[in-house]
Amino acid sequence: NVILGALAVSAFPLFANRRHAPRAELAALFGRSLRWAALLGGGALAAAWLLGGPAIRLVYPPDFWPAVPALARLAPVLVLALLNSLHALLLTAVGRTRTVLAVSCAQLAFNAAVNVVVIPAHGYLGAAAVSVATETFGLLLFAWQVRRVWRWAERRRLVPRGSWANLRTLPALRANDPRFAPRKKRRPVAWEE
């Protein structure tokens, strides 16, 4: 899990440095990051499925052996959480932290609502399945938001077509638009000074 976290943490500076780069360059970097995440996360998933049960049975007393099926159901979270992290870091690097917060809140609400229904009926195995469903839901939302942010910027011609340009400077580009002009400061009255 430390290696998976290191991959996500090391990707952020690369995304942030290339936010000015053409879209193709940032997309290629993001694609490479996703491929590495899928490869490393898939390896962790396979290890959890193949070695998790025997490791639990070897290390822990028989009271813990019922946790093996829950571990098997929970293992896909290793891949999904890493992919979610990369999408969130890309959105953060291009200045869309509010979007990341909104998706995270949606995941939290989804998880809480589904767990209220599933846990009473299926116990800890249901909770493990809901964790996988929550991460899948988050991945779909993050992927949709990455596409949406790019298309929004292109439609308004804030960035040239075919390049990511600098999505971080959208506020600066808006400053030239009178609709987003900052309000003028009020001059203080003599008695307020």
Would you summarize the structure shown here?
The protein is mostly helical and 193 residues long. It is built from 6 helices and no strands. The chain is globular and about 70 Å long.
Describe the protein.
Helix 1 (2-17) packs antiparallel against helix 2 (23-59) and helix 1 (2-17) runs parallel beside helix 4 (77-93). The protein has 6 helices and no strands. The protein has helices at 2-17, 23-59, 67-74, 77-93, 97-155, 170-175. It has 193 residues and is mostly helical. Mean pLDDT is 80; it is low at 157-173.
Number of helices: 6
SS strand fraction: under 5%
Structural class: mainly alpha
Shape: globular
Distance between the termini: 59 Å
User: Radius of gyration, rounded?
Assistant: 22 Å
Poorly predicted spans: 157-173
Order of helices and strands: HHHHHH
Mean of residue pLDDT values: 80
Instruction: Give the helix level as a range of percent.
Output: over 70%
How are the secondary structure elements laid out?
Blueprint: H1 2-17, H2 23-59, H3 67-74, H4 77-93, H5 97-155, H6 170-175
Helix pairs in contact: 1-2, 1-4, 2-3, 2-4, 3-5, 4-5
